[in-house]
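Q: What residues go here?
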């Protein structure tokens, strides 16, 4: 059948994914963000419809295990809106979990990741992991090792939260150098938060996908650097490695709350990209690149599943 995108409603040929927000959140919770949870189904649906009305066709949700990803609700929203939605398995930094949860899950992470990717009525379509600030601690290495094992079992892409955009080369050294994950199965997130062109060019040259996200009130200083980063990558022949996403992490950032939200990618950013770098570039970044980044020739299948969680 060839590479397919594993959405919450089933596998879709990669060429049918369409215009994609490559990094976002419809649901999210963390003890680090008290009172800022994304847990309202109606609000999530309104945001998804607003993105569809702006021309969007797909959203990749990077919310991993234990952070309120709500796969059953994702499936219901995808069915109601006609949007392609991709869910994540994986695990974030240790600070986002209660100690009890970490102690219970860490020793069997690879097994849990593979199960999420291959079993149940609502399957994940990527593995989310996270680095630290300018480095990788023991937890990050443990989770990335489990993610690499799950990748080798399934073919799924690994999406990486880079803390403040740092540590990209350390991540590639571990995942690709030590653990044997092909670089083109790795998506490095938040690179706009550390706009170092040397790191960007090297990561792209090694074959990884580079995800730039926002805008964000917390990281708004990166917005004006975005075009410099994209122009540098495109000029060096790496346009095929670029992904763009909204990374909406709080209710206040949603479009219904007067934030930029998901629609900004297509109403604000895409016209500016088209004017600056051309329609072919914009289409590549929003359509062709996500289809390649998140597609897989899935190597593990299971006929029985577990409860959605």
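A:
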């Amino acid at each position: 059948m060839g590479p397919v995108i594993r959405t919450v409603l089933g596998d879709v040929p990669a060429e049918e994914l369409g215009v994609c927000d490559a990094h976002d959140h419809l649901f999210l919770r963390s003890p680090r963000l008290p009172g800022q949870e994304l847990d309202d189904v109606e609000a999530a649906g309104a945001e998804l419809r607003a993105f569809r009305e702006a021309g969007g066709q797909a959203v990749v949700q990077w919310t991993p295990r234990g952070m309120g990803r709500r796969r059953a609700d994702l499936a219901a929203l995808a069915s109601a809106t006609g949007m392609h939605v991709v869910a994540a398995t994986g695990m974030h930094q240790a600070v986002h979990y209660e100690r009890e949860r970490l102690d219970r899950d860490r020793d069997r992470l690879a097994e849990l990741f593979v199960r999420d990717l291959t079993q149940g009525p609502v399957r994940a379509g990527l593995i989310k992991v996270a680095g630290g600030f300018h480095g990788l601690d023991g937890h990050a290495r443990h989770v990335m090792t489990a993610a690499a094992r799950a990748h080798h079992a399934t073919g799924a892409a690994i999406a990486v939260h880079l803390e403040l955009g740092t540590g990209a080369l350390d991540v590639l050294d571990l995942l690709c150098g030590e653990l044997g994950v092909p670089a083109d199965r790795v998506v490095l997130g938040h690179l706009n938060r550390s706009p170092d062109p040397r790191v960007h060019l090297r990561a792209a040259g090694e074959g990884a996908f580079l995800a730039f996200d926002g805008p964000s009130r917390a990281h708004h200083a990166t917005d004006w650097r975005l075009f410099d980063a994209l122009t540098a990558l495109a000029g060096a022949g790496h346009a095929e490695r670029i992904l763009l996403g909204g990374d909406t992490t709080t209710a206040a950032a949603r479009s219904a709350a007067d934030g930029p939200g998901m629609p900004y990618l297509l109403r604000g950013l895409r016209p500016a990209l088209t004017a600056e770098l051309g329609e072919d570039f914009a289409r590549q970044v929003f359509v062709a690149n996500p289809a390649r980044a998140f597609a897989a020739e899935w190597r593990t299948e299971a006929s029985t599943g577990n409860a959605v969680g």
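A: Context that may help when evaluating the design: The chain has a mean pLDDT of 91. Residues 2 and 297 are 6 Å apart (CA to CA).
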